[in-house]
Design the sequence.
């Protein structure tokens, strides 16, 4: 089973991308896929993740990894801690805390981050044009990845 956690603040422009993608992915939930739109508090979903005992947890979040706007990349658990200063979303706690809590309870679960390069994080309820154009590509990438798993 795979659990996807979308993270983001929809009032901060491109920071909302993880939350928006999660909302779209909910249409594809199944016995093997559970999707949570965590908004800015992924730590509130840790108990739900643990109770599902997934094989793989994928966080989706805006992240500055010095790539062109709208680019996305799958980072594995070891890379997430190196990127912790690059997260641009407005989490209550750092993403590394959520990762550590999951790993403490589910040591054999694979954890990844689909990082998405934002353009702007100002107060806005809309994505930048480049992220809006990338959104469907991101969703298709995830659907393909999930089918292959």
Sequence:
């Amino acid at each position: 089973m795979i659990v996807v956690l979308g993270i983001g603040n929809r009032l901060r422009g491109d920071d909302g991308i993880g939350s928006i993608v999660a909302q779209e992915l909910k249409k594809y939930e199944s016995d093997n896929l559970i999707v949570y739109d965590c908004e800015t508090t992924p730590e509130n979903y840790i108990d739900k993740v643990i109770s599902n005992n997934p094989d793989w947890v994928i966080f989706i979040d805006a992240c500055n990894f010095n790539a062109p706007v709208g680019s996305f990349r799958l980072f594995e658990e070891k890379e997430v801690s190196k990127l912790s200063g690059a997260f641009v979303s407005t989490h209550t706690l750092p993403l590394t805390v959520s990762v550590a809590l999951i790993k403490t309870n589910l040591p054999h679960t694979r954890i990844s981050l689909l990082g998405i390069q934002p353009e702007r994080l100002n107060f806005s309820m809309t994505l930048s044009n480049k992220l809006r154009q990338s959104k469907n590509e991101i969703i298709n990438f995830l659907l393909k990845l999930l089918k292959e798993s």
